[in-house]
Design a protein that fits this description.
- The chain is an alpha+beta fold.
- The chain has a domain of 47 residues.
- It contains 8 helices and 11 strands.
- The strands form 2 sheets. A 6-stranded mixed beta barrel has the order 3-4-9-6-8-7. The chain has a two-stranded parallel sheet with strand order 2-10.
- A hairpin with a 2-residue loop joins strand 7 and strand 8.
- The termini are far apart.
Length: 279
């Protein structure tokens, strides 16, 4: 013990003789502690807090990691025809939604800026259980005909940042990727999207795909996978039962192969409910 204290005293005397080095040590420790605190805060926000949707534990994310012949834009994606089959031919989900993130340029009163956009299915907000903070959100009738639904819903954060929370923004026109869209609503204050750690600014109906991404459309191309698909389990339906039903019910529609089941938890976003799919 005496040896330890002797070493400590020796170290302190040495640091006193080199005040510049001492300052660097103190600064380094401070930065390290500050960085750890910042990282923990970020992890708390991203991993430990649930999605701001109704009953997030009932949501599952469908994944298609199997062999595939065709175009794949992102991981965990389906083509729009595959999504439509999953949405319309199931007995285990109360609803199945689709979403595609895209970069956009928004023009408002002559000023343009880059923003984060999501193309979403008409049932997106209904399946998630997200209500509007202002105006309204999309419904199924807003997403029926390609190119026929030039409307947008703003996220609450974007509304505050870009429009200073002005309620008169409803029914005003914002130009997105060169196309005028009517703002019909602002989403719930807590809702920032379904991709944890990435906030969406503007949401547009899926049927506006050709206008929002003019270099490619692929709404009717079964061999082009670009959609994230999420579903809400019916009450009393387990993930195991849902996975089994996917194999049985959708083999002809979407050629689903071997199953890999992982649980989507808001606190553990890396754990996903996965259904291996081929086309």
């Amino acid at each position: 013990m005496n040896g330890i204290w002797r070493d400590i005293r020796h170290a302190i005397r040495g640091l006193r003789k080199t005040p510049g080095f001492l300052a660097i040590v103190i600064l380094t420790l401070g930065l390290g502690i500050g960085a750890n605190a910042a990282i923990f805060s970020l992890m708390d926000q991203i991993l430990l807090r649930p999605l701001a949707v109704h009953n997030p534990s009932a949501l599952v994310l469908l994944d298609g990691p199997g062999a595939f012949l065709g175009r794949t834009t992102n991981a965990m994606t389906f083509s729009y025809p595959m999504y439509r089959d999953l949405r319309d031919r199931n007995e285990v989900f109360t609803g199945v939604l689709a979403r595609f993130p895209f970069a956009l340029t928004a023009v408002w009163r002559g000023a343009s800026e880059r923003a984060n956009g999501d193309l979403v299915s008409g049932n997106y907000f209904e399946v998630l259980g997200v209500q509007p903070a202002l105006g309204r959100v999309f419904n199924a009738s807003d997403d029926r005909t390609p190119g026929a639904h030039p409307i947008a819903v703003l996220s609450y954060g974007y509304w505050q940042r870009k429009f200073a929370g002005d309620p008169l923004v409803i029914n005003q026109t914002i130009t997105v990727n060169g196309h005028p869209l009517t703002i019909v609503g602002v989403s719930d204050r807590r809702f920032t999207g379904i991709q944890i750690g990435s906030a969406v600014d503007i949401m547009v109906p899926m049927m506006m795909k050709a206008q929002m991404t003019p270099t490619w459309n692929d709404l009717d191309n079964r061999r082009s996978r670009w959609l994230n698909v999420m579903a809400r389990l019916k009450p009393g339906v387990s993930r195991t039962r849902a996975a089994a039903a996917m194999t049985t019910d959708y083999e002809d529609a979407v050629a689903i192969g071997d199953l890999s089941v992982r649980l989507l938890r808001p606190s553990e976003p890396e754990e996903l409910f996965a259904v291996a799919a081929d086309d």
